[in-house]
Amino acid sequence: QVQLVESGGGLVQAGGSLRLSCAASGSIFSINTMGWYRQAPGKQRELVAAITSGGATNYADSVKGRFTISRDNAKNTVHLQMNSLKPEDTAVYYCNTFARTVLRPWSDYWGQGTQVTVSS
Asked: What pLDDT was estimated at residue 81?
């Protein structure tokens, strides 16, 4: 199994910044993509940003130019730097990874979620 522990959420005013972090642990054999999703009340969960083990990134159009995803492969961590936050960024943010463990084949894993609230 892979455990994902997120940190860094909170309340911030519009225009402010937050940095989310996620650490993966467990009997990890290999990690491919790591990323962040978010889900606002009444809406479907959506991809915010993702990064492959090789460093290729993918961003939702709504966050391009404002958010930056990065990862440390040696530490199995992924970070999301969020700048110029808007009220519409308010959501629960979930860390996600596609990984293979010693006992399980490639599978999706999710963190417990961290709340980000942007006030206007």
From this structure: 98
